[in-house]
What we know:
The protein is mainly α. Helices cover 80% and strands 0% of the residues. Helix 1 packs across helix 3 and helix 2 packs antiparallel against helix 3. The longest helix is centred in the first third of the chain and has 34 residues. The radius of gyration is 15 Å and the shape is flat.
Amino acid sequence: xxxxRKEINSIxxxxxxxxxxxxxxxxxxxxxxxxxxxxxxxxAREKVVIENCVSxxxxxxxxxxxxxxxxxxxxxxxxxxx
Length: 82
């Protein structure tokens, strides 16, 4: 069990770094949208992001879970943009 927990911890370390990078870019996008009077929410873009992520899965049984995770990530990002 400890071996698996260490592996999860390592994966979490990577995820946090990647999410922080994503959030930094989201803030730049938010500034751009504000300067150009663009809406925060872009339904078409969100759909493309989710489809792209699901398409990269090796195990398609995780599709719904990836969709759920990305909806949460994008909701968080929209809050950051505001």
